[in-house]
Amino acid sequence: MDELSVRVHRSDENLAREDQLAWKLAGVAVDDVEVSDEVTEMVINRVIDNAAVAAASLLRPPVTSARSQALAHPVSIAGQGATVFGADGGRRTSPEWAAWANGVAVRELDYHDTFLAAEYSHPGDNIPPVVAVAQHLADARGLTGRDIVRGIATGYEVQIDLAKAISLHAHKIDHVAHLGPSAAAGIGTLLGLDQATVYQAIGQALHTTTATRQSRKGEISTWKAHAPAFAGKIAVEAVDRAMRGETSPSPIYEGEDGVIAWLLDGKDARYDVSLPSAGEAKRAILDSYTKEHSAEYQAQAWIDLARKLHDEYPLILDDPDRVERIVLHTSHHTHFVIGSGANDPQKYDPTASRETLDHSIPYIFAVALQDGRWHHVDSYRPERAARPDTVELWKKITTVQDEEWTRRYHSLDMAEKAFGGRVEIVLADGGTISEEIAVADAHPLGARPFGRAEYAAKFRSLAEFVLDESEIERFLTLVERLPELGSDELVGLTITAAPGVLSSVENPTGIF
Predict the structure, then answer these.
(1) Between 20 and 30 A from 152 (CA), which of 93, 182, 275, 386?
(2) Peptide bond into 382 cis (omega under 30)
(3) Which reaction is this enzyme known to catalyze (predicted)?
(4) Domain extent listing, the chain
């Protein structure tokens, strides 16, 4: 890996383009290194994973809205258009709008892959814009499944490398500010663009996708699912502009009025960013992990621990009167973002939105403890959240920050990196129950790591109510051949809902 020291430069220092972070990221994108078999297999897994969670969300209002927006737009004239999840494969739209609709479908349930370090990320958000552009330009540029694999590998590499080095949330900037550049870089790899063009696209994408974290604070709105899709859409547009010769603010990261100086650590900031050396394989996707449960990633291990405790102590934990209090000793992020340290009263509100409950570890732990399971629909139903015994137990659950769990959370040693903690349950009779968990069961180091069979099973389980069985098997068979797909087969990288499914919900109307 190459180590790049990034700091703010005065305008009169004239930081050379070749020394800028955006240029180095573009260099990663244009490096024509082969993708390893191990990485290729994981790319296939994540394409399946994205389709699984998209299928489960096809009828949810934000997805219906984004899909109706996308399908209101015609195919742009430069290509054959891109497909939209749920719609018939013959129905195409312009690639930026396909990236938008499919990005919302993938993110809506917060149920796909994750990487957590200095910053948070869902690197699977790179897949919709890369695939949309590939479908649109498949014939015009002779793109194949191999090109898609390479583009996705770049998107993951850039986003994860940025997430390891540069914290956005510390300054209340939303994590999708790393996604705009990574998606632009992934598209650059897909299309085989030159470094100067990708550099301009990365700068434009970053400049136009920075926003505050209020989208994940307080009463969390449906924009939580739209924000990464917007970044993917903007990345497509940024690449288009750069290909036409348009330029971007420079230096976008290091400038005295740039992102670091005014949105992040300020004029005295210094970040050490590690990027693959020329000719070094892009392997960052292997450091990421998917979700077995539809909840914030920091909740995954806690759900697994709650299931274990439910099985071991059913007579005690089914009755909230037997519990005095429950304290989750965990990382800084879990405590302050989804725990009681956030000081969000909505995290204890039985009438809160699904998006808010998804970011409440006290709620999630209470329900998983009582039910011994977690379900992407049932566990969030209003009647489930309002159950009196659940509310009683829920109010007894708090979080505290633990320095060791915080250290392990931020560790870049993947063998010790952890997202769990220790639970202390104090019983009304004075007894205590104490257990800990480091990583989720589905994590590569967990009790039951996900492999191809588990990804396929997740897809079948989530898609069975909206896709015909033949469509499920068609998609799986096609995706497993991803690196071998020819240009004419890329259009098949979508899912078509069973007859009558999409018409069961009303399409909202707007300007388009």
Answers:
(1) 93
(2) no
(3) (2S,3S)-2-methylcitrate = 2-methyl-cis-aconitate + H2O
(4) 2-287, 297-437
CATH number at 297-437: 3.30.1330.120
Question: Is 26:202 a contact under the CB 8 Å cutoff?
Answer: yes
How confident is the model over 430-481, as pLDDT tens digits?
999 999 999 999 999 999 999 999 999 999 999 999 999 999 999 999 999 9
Calculate Rg over the CA atoms of the chain.
Answer: 22
Asked whether 211 and 173 are in contact (CB, 8 A), the reply is yes
Please give the model's pTM, rounded to 2 decimal places.
0.92
Other CB atoms within 10 Å distance of the CB of residue 131: 25
CATH of the structural domain 2-287, one choice from 1.20.1290.10, 3.30.1360.120, 1.10.4100.10, 3.40.50.11220 = 1.10.4100.10
Measuring CA to CA, how many Å separate 293 from each of 108, 206, 247, 262, 382?
13, 31, 42, 37, 18
Whole-angstrom distance, CA of residue 86 vs CA of residue 502: 7
For residue 303, give the amino acid letter.
I
| Pairing outcome for strands 120-121 and 115-116 | antiparallel
Q: Is 162 exposed, middle or buried (0-12, 13-18, 19+ CB in 10 A)?
A: buried
